[in-house]
Amino acid sequence: MATRQVALAIDIGGTKMRGALITESGDVLARDDIPTQAAKGEPAAMKRLAALLRRMNAEVPDAEPVGIGMAIAGTVDPETGLFYNPPNLPAWHDTTPSLDLGELLGLPAWVHNDASLAVLGEYVYGIGAGTKSLVMVTLGTGVGGGLVFDGHLYGGHRGYAGEIGHLVVDSAGPQCACGGRGCLEMMASGTAMARIARERLAAGEPSLVTKLVRGDLDKVSSEVLVKAEGQGDPLAGDVLRGAADYMGVGVATLRSVLDPEIIVVGGGVSRNLHIFFPRLVASAKAHAMNVDKELCPVVPTVLGDDAGLLGAAALAWQKLRG
Amino acid sequence: MATRQVALAIDIGGTKMRGALITESGDVLARDDIPTQAAKGEPAAMKRLAALLRRMNAEVPDAEPVGIGMAIAGTVDPETGLFYNPPNLPAWHDTTPSLDLGELLGLPAWVHNDASLAVLGEYVYGIGAGTKSLVMVTLGTGVGGGLVFDGHLYGGHRGYAGEIGHLVVDSAGPQCACGGRGCLEMMASGTAMARIARERLAAGEPSLVTKLVRGDLDKVSSEVLVKAEGQGDPLAGDVLRGAADYMGVGVATLRSVLDPEIIVVGGGVSRNLHIFFPRLVASAKAHAMNVDKELCPVVPTVLGDDAGLLGAAALAWQKLRG
Q1: A154 contacts chain B (CB < 8 A)
Q2: CB of B119 within 8 A of CB of B312?
Q3: A231 — contact with chain B (CB < 8 Å)?
Q4: Are B23 and B29 in contact (CB under 8 A)?
Q5: Which residues have CB under 8 Å from A147's CB, separation 6+?
Q6: B291 interface with A at CB cutoff 8 Å
Q7: CATH number of B18's domain
C-alpha cells in the first residue's frame, strides 16, 4: 500500500495534550487529545501520549510517521530539549519530553515553546503562507508573539527575541513584573484591561461592569469588559479602545523597526471584539512612519487554537527537510 | 612584486567625497577626500573621484583594487544602484553613481545608503567585530541606526527596516514628519532637544541658553545645550537627560523585541556628552525586561566618522567573497 509521510505534531498544555498526524502540505489526517495529568509526572504522560499516537496511526494505516514536532507551554531549550521551570507544568522541571517521546516511538523529535510555534504555524500554514517575513502579536491574558525572518523563527542572541509584550509603549507607564515599565503587556493585555477597569471602578465611575461582577471587583476580566461593551457600557468600551490603541502603538513600532511583509494579530481578546481590530489598525496608522512608504498589512490570524499544533508540524518538517 | 588586494571604499556626502583603500582585514592603506561639487552633476563627480582613486593607488603601488563599495547619503536601491530623490544631492536624482564609477575603473561596484553602511562598518570592523547580531542607534540631528542579523544588514520586506528613529516611545507625543507620532526622533534627536528647549525658554524659564544664543531662539541647538549643560545650566541638563531617557526607552524596546548580541549607540550628540551615556543605559535598564534575563550590553561606537567608509569596504568584501 502506498504511504503518506506525516509528522506527529504535539501541543502540550497544563491541562491537555493534543496530537495530530500532519502531512508536509499541512493536511491534518487525524487529531485527538487527552488530559495532561501533569502531576503524575512527565514519563507517565509521554507513555500515554505515545499510546495515543499509536492508536491514531492505526486508524490511518497509510500514514507513515517520519518525525515528531512538539509545542510545549514553558521555557524549553530547542537544542537540548531540556524543559525548565515551567509555571504550568511544575512537576516536569528538568525533563526532556520531546526526547523521551522520540525514544518511545523510535522517531527523531524536535521541540520549541508553544507561543513561538504558533507563530511558525501561522507563517507556514496560516495567513503567512507564501510570505517571507512575519511578525505576530497575540493578545490574551498577556501579550506575546514572535518573529519569522526568511522562513525561520528568529530567537535572537540568547533566545529571548520576540518578547513583543515587553516593548515599551508608554515610558511613564506602570512597573511590569518583567522588570521594565510601560510595556505593551502592562497597557493592553487582558490582565491590564482588568486592572485599569478595576482602578476606575474603585474610584467610583459608574458602569454596568459592577453589576456583572456583582460588586466583586476581583471578578473583573477582559471577558466581562467585552460583555459590558457589547451592551453599550461606556467605561468598558473606553478600556477596550485604550488597549486597542496601545496594541496599535506596538504594531507601529514593529513596522518601523522591522518592516515585515505582514503583521499578524491573534489571541483570545482580539478575536472576541468587533471594535478591537479596526481600532488597532487605525492607531497603528496614526503612530507608524508612513510618508512615502506604504504601510505593511496588519491582518488577523486564521489558525486560532490550531496554530501551535500546525507549528509543531512545521518545525518537524523544517528539520526533516534540512 | 607581491600585491595586497584592497577594496576601494567610498563615502559620498553632500559636501565631501571620501575614498580609501581598505584590505579585507580592515587596514586602511590610503585615504583622501575631495569636495563633492554636487551641483556640477554626478558624471563630473564620478570622473574626479576615479582620478582621485587612481592617484591614491599610484602611491600604494602594491595595492590591487578588486572591487568598489560605496556609501552614499540618500535613498539608493542596492540591487540596481539607482539613486533617487536625494535631499542632499538633488542634481543626482535618477543616476547610478556606483555603476558609473565601476565602469570608469573597470571594477565591480556595490552601493548602499551611508547610514546602513555605518552600521555594517561598526559590525565588521568596529565594536561589533566578532558578534553575530547587532543593533545600532545613532543620535544626531535625527535618530537613525540599523540592524545586523547573522552577519548581514537586515532591510526587511520593502527595504525600510531599521528605522529606529521612528519606533514609538511616547504614544501621546507630538506628530512627526514621518507621519507617526511620539517616535524616538520626535522626543530625543538633536532637533527634538532644540524644540523642547525652545518651548520652555519661550514659556519664560530662565536659562543660560538664552544668553548663549543672544536671545535668538532660532539658534538653540543640541550643541548650545551641551555647552550650557557643561556650565551647570539646569534647563539644558534637564532637556539632555530627558533625551537620554527616551533613547534608553528605545534601547529597551529593541532589546526585548530583538535580543541582539550588543546594542551600539553612536552619533554626534551622544559622543559629546559625558552624562548622556550612563543616563541612557540606566533608562534602558529601568524599561527593559530583565527578570531572569541578562541585559544585552549597550556600548558606544568606536569608528566615529569612519564607520561609513569602513562599511563600504565591508560591503565590497562581503560581495566579493560571496
Answers
A1: yes
A2: no
A3: no
A4: yes
A5: A119, A134, A135, A136, A153, A154, A161, A162, A258, A260, B257, B258
A6: yes
A7: 3.30.420.40
Q: Judge if B105 and B198 occupy the same domain.
A: no
Domain containing A50: what range?
Answer: 4-123+305-320
Which region, left, alpha or beta, applies to residue A85 given φ > 0 means left and ψ of -120 to 50 means alpha?
Answer: left
Residues A71, A197, single domain; the answer is: no
List pLDDT tens digits, range A44-74.
Answer: 999 999 999 999 999 999 999 999 999 998 8
Give the closest of A133, A166, A259 to B256, CB-based.
A166
Report the C-alpha gap between A310 and B152 in whole angstroms: 30
Write out residues in chain A with pLDDT < 70, as ranges: 1, 273, 292-293
CB contact at 8 A, B169 and B192: no
Model pLDDT for residues B235-282, shown as the tens digit of each residue: 999 999 999 999 999 999 999 999 999 999 988 777 776 778 899 999
Lay out the sheet containing A109-113: strands in order across.
A28-35, A16-22, A4-12, A63-72, A109-113
* ipTM surpasses 0.95: no
Give yes or no: residues B68 and B16 share one domain: yes
Shortest CA distance from A146: residue in chain B: B257
The domain total for chain B is 2
Residues of chain A positioned with their CB less than 8 A from the CB of B296? 157-158
The beta-carbon neighbor of A289 closest among B178, B254, B296 is B178
Q: What is the pLDDT of residue A137?
A: 94
Rounded Cα–Cα distance for residues A59 and A8 (Å): 14
B270 shares its domain with B194? yes
Contact A320/A284 with Cβ under 8 angstroms?
no
Check CB contact of B169 with chain A, cutoff 8 Å. Answer: yes
* B180 contacts A288 by C-beta, under 8 angstroms: yes
Does residue A311 share a domain with residue A277? no
Residues B288, B315, single domain; the answer is no
A-B interface: how many C-beta pairs under 8 angstroms? 163
Which of A169, A195, A175, A167 minimizes the C-alpha distance to A283? A169
Whether A103 and A161 map to the same domain: the answer is no
Pick the residue from chain A with its C-alpha nearest to B136.
Answer: A257
Statement to judge: residues A189 and A276 lie in one domain = yes
